[in-house]
Amino acid sequence: MEDIILTTASTLKYTGAIKKILEQELEKPSEEFVRFFASRIYGGRLTQSVLEQFRKIVKKAREQFINEKINDRLKSALSTNEDKKEEISEVVETIRSSPKNDGIETTEEEIEAYNIIKAILRNVIDVKRVVMRDKKSYCGILLDDTNRKPICRLHFNRSRKYLGLIANKQEERVEIESLDDIFKYTDNLRAVIGEYSE
Description:
By secondary structure, the protein is α+β, with helices and mostly antiparallel strands. It folds into 2 domains: 2-78, no CATH class; 84-197. The protein contains 6 helices and 5 strands. It has a 5-stranded antiparallel β-sheet with strand order 1-2-3-4-5. β2 (139-143) and β3 (150-155) form a beta hairpin. α2 packs across α3.
């Protein structure tokens, strides 16, 4: 039993260390990292100028690779939820046509953002517990449909879009340029779920 605990602890430690190295290499590729790819692809001599060109290529390839992976995961999550998307559309239509909506309009972007957030949280919680509640000033994403458990807020009613991240019941707004930027805050969104299960 002790061996299993030590092995698990070691695995977590090494996994964390590897993830940190990967993050650093992907953010600012070292010469060894660039050389690794260049030596497998480039047929000529690896001069300093060739390595500099490959450094830019590696960074560009990294960005494209990450974006493609994000898009693949999103498409996969959305394609398995075609029925749920239809249900959401019906709910949104009901909200829009309801006389009690007081001028609240749920936009397609808010629905898409809601689906992205559900895709992010799918691995940590049953997404049936994740609920969207639109208000005049923001669109709230809640756990268990209660205001006491906000996951995040979407501030999309202005020319600039903001994602309201929740930590310790406090909101921090971060500007996003596109809905794909929500994926940058995967750890924050999953962490807030952990706060409610403590």
